[in-house]
Amino acid sequence: xxxxxxxxxxxxxxxxxxxxxxxxxxxxxxxxxxxxxxxxxxxxxxxxxxxxxxxxxxxxxxxxxxxxxxxxxxxxxxxxxxxxxxxxxxxxxxxxxxxxxxxxxxxxxxxxxxxxxxxxxxxxxxxxxxxxxxxxxxxxxxxxxxxxxxxxxxxxxxxxxxxxxxxxxxxxxxxxxxxxxxxxxxxxxxxxxxxxxxxxxxxxxxxxxxxxxxxxxxxxxxxxxxxxx
Length: 229
What we know:
Elements (H helix, E strand, L loop, with lengths): L1 E5 L2 E5 H4 L2 E4 L3 E13 L11 H13 L3 E12 L5 E7 L4 E5 L3 E5 L3 E6 L2 E2 L5 H15 L4 E6 L2 E7 L3 E6 L5 E3 L4 E14 L3 H4 L8 E14 L6
Antiparallel strand pairs: 1-2, 2-5, 3-5, 3-8, 4-5, 6-12, 7-11, 7-15, 8-12, 9-11, 10-15, 13-16, 14-16, 15-16
């Protein structure tokens, strides 16, 4: 599917791999006959009405990245802002949840949706999940929502300074700084928890005041930096 050219660029042969969705501005160059068209992630601000639901929908629409669909017969090269790339090969039954800003591209047939990051066990959490995500986003500097992908295909992640691939399993969770979090893959649940008391956390801007607990079975991807994209 996606082939790494170096640590910062991937290529994909559309004739062999099929259509690809990538964030706008990520296409570096291509050869052959390739067409690009706008693409919308399902659930990003659509179908919500009234008061708080409309507010949550607007925040969802504002946080997911604009994307383009590439189709045709040709080879396309992708990269973004000189960031490191990592390819995740997905299998049926597994789920990838990735920060919207850290998703470079993915196979078009993958099922995509937008879910709350505050407490994720495979569902979006509805309005209350969205509002919990809003509070968590303010506290950590992390986005409110992640993009969820499932099905068979591949996705390309973006990160500062390279990636750590940490196995999740056993009795103890993997605890991650939310600002270093990139994605989780497999049957992994995430929950934001306060690491300090409210009094201790006042005035501190670092992500250590909140921690992202990852438990279940799978992998958590962490970038080697706390720098936001």
